[in-house]
Amino acid sequence: MIKDKKVLFSGMQATGNLTLGNYLGALKNWVTLSDDYECFYSVVDMHSITIRQDPATLRKRARALLTLYIAAGLDPKKNCIYYQSHVSGHAELAWILDCFTYMGELNRMTQFKDKAAKHADNINAGLFTYPVLMAADILLYQADVVPVGIDQMQHLELTRNIAIRFNNLYGDVFTVPEAYIGKVGAKIMSLQDPSKKMSKSDENPNGSIYLMDDPDTIMRKCKRAVTDSEACVAYREEQPGLKNLIDIYCACLGKTPGEAVKEFEGKGYGELKMAVGEAVVSVLKPLQEEVARLEKDKAYIDSIIKENSEKAQYFANKTLRKVQRKVGFPDRIR
Ligand code: TRP
User: Fold this and answer.
1) CA of 249 to the centre of ligand 1 (A)
2) Residues 133 and 71 in one domain
3) CATH code assigned at 214
4) 10 CA to middle of ligand 1, Å?
5) Banded model confidence at residue 185, pLDDT cuts 50, 70, 90
């Protein structure tokens, strides 16, 4: 790859309903990165089937997520937005990397342990090797940087170790990726339990604002958000519910916590909650409208899917052919 820009890779799963946390914490920042990096943003549908999925729902959600990437402002001409399952190189490289990853390493993955405990009836081999598929995603495109949340850091560290191990054996094949930790990447917590991350798998639907929630639902959830009995708008660890509301407010409107606290000085929590709800609506409503507009333009989205999967395949195959040669697979006859 001729690199005048560094390469960035990231992906999201199309499982569950995406939340405001996914948007403010990840997607929104991806948009700001697309000028500085050559970006690959994948809908990682192959990862999704490590947990049993309803096929029709997965297909629908994968398309909705891809559409959302574009609606959020990722220009599909500049950013390679594609389905992981459309690029067979992911599976092919994952197999090779499986043979360079130790059981002991995978056994240490905390996400595997958590998911295995949660889905005790379906602890499949894919769930176990999930981090190797993720390593393949990243290494296939020779990514320099990977924006990930803290929950994925262990997987990224494993990716680096696999890359270094492979490079030590075969020479400089893979770029060893770095985590991209955003400047103030908003970490949005549950509205019902501010010690937990706002999550698409929260059992309590009032804890999360979903990206497709309508304004009434958003306002209701904000009004019901858990606060405290201090009766004083402040931004501090001791008032986690309030801190979270202020974080949401600031992330939506591009303000600083200091500014927000000043604005609500001497005002009640009720007023703050209303303002937070309105701020969220002001961000999500246009996003939803753009999704709706794009969804109607089937031919356009289809053309993006086709073009970008071809682009992704081109780069993926370059790495894959090199790797296949290194490990000793016979040359292809053309
Ligand atoms: N495992 C990531 C998650 O659940 C998604 C993912 C898959 C990913 N492949 C990736 C993220 C590669 C970054 C880079 O959040």
Assistant:
1) 27
2) yes
3) 1.10.240.10
4) 6
5) low
